[in-house]
Amino acid sequence: MQSPVESLLRGGSEPSKPFRAVVIDKNGDGQTVSLKDVAPDELMDGDVTVKVAWSTLNYKDGLALTGTAPVVRRFPMIPGVDFVGTVDNSSHPAWKPGDKVICNGWGLGETHLGAYAEYARVKGDWLVPLPTSLSPREAMAIGTAGYTAMLAVMALERHGLTPAQGPVLVTGAAGGVGSVAIAILARLGYTVIAATGREGEAAYLRQLGASEVIPRAELTGKVRPLAKERFAAAIDSAGSTVLANVLSMIRYGGAVAACGLAAGMDLPTSVAPFILRGVALLGIDSVMCPIEQRRIAWNRLEHEIDRLKIEAMTTEIWLADVVEAGQRIVDGQVRGRIVVRIGG
Questions:
Q1: Would the pLDDT of 344 be above 80?
Q2: CB-based contacts of 211: which residues, under 8 Å, 6+ apart?
Q3: In the prediction, which pLDDT does 336 show?
């Protein structure tokens, strides 16, 4: 733990008492997850310590909490891949105590102690400022899911996509990335087609801006090298057979922004969409995305997202509720976004 002199030189004060955190630890071939006290000196190295106010629950967090996939790479681990909070202590030149900051990715909850805790210590180079007009709660209602959706939209725009080119498909539409992607695309003037396996969510998806809702079953059958051209572009968070079918249905010169693997990591497709229709597959990585792209994405989210739609898709839980909610999101029982209240 730092001495008082070292703490003063860093600017601000380090937490002096144990704080609450969700902790994943090894248990034989499995894992345990519990809400417990963590000592300040257990935090990992970093030049900025943040008092966390809000986090969120993403599908990746659910995988970590349930142990469904090997997301966690070190134990013990505090899960949670994103947070918003106030700088408590900093030796980084860009940040001072009192600054409001957002952190997404960079190994949080995987290799670096993450967001489901009252404090986090991270590298200052990982942080972006909280946009002026966004409240901390709104920022996490958008969260990694919304930031990923915006990165996908930006990638499609760089490929040349415009609303005039035709409808854009969004898979996993009722989930976090899908819900925000629909809201963003609709606000930008695109015709959005939502694909979901939850028939009861059609009204919700239309409320977000979808012009049409189709059953996921249309995208899970046997993959043909090429199918009827239906969509100008797509944002896919499913992967596997869903993504393969989507690729076969993209119009000539179109593109798919792929950002998830809810249906699996495999991709049972052929080269046909790429060499016969000039379709592009655009990979979206939110974890190690360069900081300048992050700043652009958050600036656009501040100005180009309907706050009322974000609020309508968001539910709120406390830190103690994270483990149960993690199981629900993996089971496909979560609609839209969940924010996690961590600060008092």
A1: no
A2: 167, 191, 192, 193
A3: 87
What is the C-alpha separation between 280 and 136, in angstroms, rounded? 36
- 233-285 pLDDT, tens digit per residue, is 999 999 999 999 999 999 999 999 999 998 999 999 999 999 999 999 999 99
Q: Is the pLDDT of residue 13 over 70?
A: no
How many helical (H) and strand (E) elements, i.e. helices and strands, does the chain have? 10, 15
How far apart are the C-alpha atoms of 229 and 248, rounded to whole Å?
A: 8
Domain range spanning residue 323? 4-130+313-341
Q: Sheet holding 280-283: strands in order across?
A: 212-215, 192-196, 168-170, 231-236, 250-258, 280-283
123/156 same-domain check: no
What the block records as the tokens of 301 is 């989210």
Asked if 182 and 211 touch (Cβ cutoff 8 Å), the reply is no
Interhelix angle 59-66/322-330, rounded to 10 degrees, is 110
Decide if 8 is inside a domain.
yes
Q: What is the CA radius of gyration of the chain?
A: 20
CB 167 within 8 A of CB 232: yes
Which pLDDT value is given to residue 12? 63
Distance CA 149, CA 339 (A): 17
| Cα separations in angstroms, 128 against 8, 163, 198, 227 | 24, 30, 35, 42
- Residue-wise pLDDT for 15-27, tens only, equals 779 999 999 999 8
Exposure class string for 3-30: b at 16+ Cβ within 10 A, else e: eeeebeebbbebbeeebbbbbbeeeeee
By three-state DSSP, how is residue 267 classified?
coil
Q: Distance between CA atoms of 233 and 188, rounded to whole angstroms?
A: 14
* Residue 294 lies inside a defined structural domain of this protein: no
Q: Count the neighbouring beta carbons within 10 Å of the beta carbon of residue 69.
A: 14
Please check whether residue 175 is in contact with residue 163, taking contact to mean a CB–CB distance below 8 angstroms. no
The tokens describing 17, both together, are 């008492």
Q: Which amino acid is at 316?
A: E
Tally of domains in the chain: 2
